[in-house]
Amino acid sequence: MNTTYVTVMDFILNLPPDSRAIEAVQCLLEDEILQQLAFMTANFKVLKQAITQLVERQLLTESVGIVRKVQDSITVQPFKTKLQSVLEKNSGFLKLAQMADVLSGV
Question: What is the residue-wise DSSP string for the chain?
Fold first, then answer.
């Protein structure tokens, strides 16, 4: 987890709950936000890695392979369906994927 976030969270959680605003923020930090961050970390770590790899110049076959790895790695709905839908509608990606398949002999 981001160290800045943890520092700010610790600060807010240690404030005396002497106003409704502080209480509300403390409740959010204790429950909802931590759960959402844990969910995103567990399920979308592959996206960070893929974006980092795709920013670098790669061979076409490697780039398409990275995108396909992301497709296989994301299993949570509705994100899996949305990614599939976006890629299917992207005719440019479909053509690149076909070219990559030809180049790799698939």
Answer: --HHHHHHHHHHHTS---SHHHHHHHHHIIIIIHHHHHHHHHHHHHHHHHHHHHHS---HHHHHHHHHHHHHH--STTHHHHHHHHHHH-HHHHHHHHHHHHHHT-
